[in-house]
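INFO batch 0412 | record 1 of 1 | parsing
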Amino acid sequence: RGLSWPCAPAVTDVNVKLHMRNVVPVLACCGAALVARTPRAVAAMCAHGTSTRATNNTSISISIIIPCLNEAGNVERCIHSTRGHLMRCKGSTPQLEVIVVDGSSTDASANVAEGAGAKVIMAVRGRGRQLNEGAAAAHGELLLFLHADSQLPADWLAALQEARHRSGQEPHKWGCFESIQLAGNTGWVAAVLRKGVAFRTRLLHMPYGDQAIFVDRLAFEAVGGFQQWRLLEDVDMVQRLHQAYGPPAIVPAPVQVSARRWQRLGFVRTCLVNQAILAAWACGVPPDTLARWYYGPSTVATGGTAGDTSASTVSCSGVGALAPASGPARGKSSRPSQR
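INFO prediction complete | emitting tokens
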């Protein structure tokens, strides 16, 4: 009975609870002293809890799909932004491929993209078609759709992985970045736009294509991919994903986007155009008709769009309320074929 120690006589009638209250602090001090002599051990212990999580989170393969049309001046920066995580990512990094889907550009977009290290494939013009072609050629388990005039934030990978696993359960099937930031613009327009898009995304769960939507490959195929539309293909996809899998995982960082369309049309006019397009779509106007109104009949007749094919058509901070609540297919465009 009682406690015994090596090289000491047996001790009986010990108040165990009283002595444990004294022993525990001593053991803690001894452990702290021991660890203090080995700083690497401290770092290893601190990292142990996160290393497993990081490994689990970054083990997934990712394909970044960039639709492109006459974006020679932007696509290189876009591609380089996808690799910013390599300088900041600790632990294992995922398999990452960058696919640029060129819609028969008349400039050097394809050559610039190849020179920047991306895989380039050619497709019929039209953002919906190009996105689907990129997804069909991709090998990643997670698909991220990025516009060619956009740039991901420097720590995008860590932030994306954290957002996908934030619930502590199964990873989110789809998600987006919280907002957009106009490149080179720090004025009130950029501030209002960023806050407004973030508000719409978190309140209505309605991100648009310029927010770098990402989706699990199996979920992408399950909802049928993008409609082969020239306009509003992103809005339609988001509605179907939300209906099938619930709200998106939201990465609390903005995607940097080109300010050219906002500068050309002006903030108010751009918002009004966006609202008019969404209102017409909610009333049942087919996407091809809307594309003809927006881009002009000549570009639609050739199967493509002119100029800002990478720029979102409905990125105004106030839009979303007029978009249909459910995601029925409009028009007669067929679903894309999957691999």
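INFO post-check: Strands lie at 62-68, 96-102, 119-122, 142-145, 150-151, 174-182, 214-216, 249-257.
INFO record closed
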